[in-house]
Hints:
alpha+beta; 3-hydroxy-3-methylglutaryl-coenzyme A Reductase, Chain A, domain 2; Alpha-Beta Plaits; 3 domains; 10-stranded mixed sheet; 10 strands; 22% strand
Amino acid sequence: MTDAETLARKVQDGELRLYELEDHADAETAAAARRQLLAEEVGADLETVGEYAFDAADAEPNIENMVGAAQIPMGVVGPLPVDGGAAEGEHYLPLATTEGALLASVNRGVSTIRHAGGATARVLKSGMTRAPVFKVDDVAEAGEVSAWVREHVAELADAAEATTSHGELQDVTPYVVGDSVFLRFSYDTKDAMGMNMATIATEAACDVIEAETPADLVALSGNLCSDKKPAAINAVEGRGRTVSADVLIPHEQVEERLDTTTAAIAEANTRKNLVGSAKAGALGFNAHAANVVAAAFLALGQDAAQVVEGSNTITTVDAREEGLYASVTLASLEVGTVGGGTSLPTQSEALDVLGYGGGGDPAGSNADALAEVIAAGVLAGELSLLAALSSRHLSSAHAELGR
């Protein structure tokens, strides 16, 4: 095997490229060679980047040109009681972030929910989407292709499902724009987030469509999916898991634990989250759902870029006779408990804290439970921030914690 210094020198001399190092050495040595190369060429000290707890070879499915690992502080909030369709009992939710005061705020919301008897959560819809775009000659052909697809979903399902032992095609919806035909495929991907699964399955179905219709495939993703981009279709139709969580908090607990009133929180939610978001043209009508979603995604091995869709959340607050009713609905939370970053040691351990790592029984139940707990965590974060805003304690809380 070639040592790191020799590999680095060969890259500098143009004999090897960065991505070729694993062909000449083990993954650990290749990563060390890249760190040495960077240290020499840009003067960076990568000693800490090179200190990580997992085997570099285990990370090869998740990264290319590896140099080390980015370490993000991880904390935990809880216990958070969740009465879910899949999640039951009390949970500690790991969150990874560099934003000071975030976990303290979320934990205040968690404590309030716990003393109110816990949150209720349900996955309302599940389906990972991929939407290829085809070209046709004219709208007549577009109509022909759309009609054929509607009549042959079972045939497309056979082709798609032949590529996977887990995914199931749920539906195919055509959308026509002139001589472009978009087909939005939706899959039940069980406990996997399922983006790769849906992509591979859809490619097989596209072969059938091209063989049986006049349509020519232009791109396997036509952005109507819509992956990792703000999109109203995900807010309306959902993507991944659509999940809601709610809680009813007695008025006296609102005052004791959140240092404000039900009426003040309700007004802040209406004027900030609803009216303010509408005026801004926002897709998400919430206070900071992305904060909890992002921190959970980083801790639990989810695709961080899908925070774009995962934070597509509507928060509602109602002043009822018996207390403050609050809910969050996350339209497109894309999570999984198998595959992707969930197999990395740190993230796997964090999933074990929740108790939902790996495949569930029945299939899909672990990912459903994960979605429900994250939704309850988002609810806790929304309650705490709305309380801080309505009591005018937001800046003082950050100042007190030195952030």
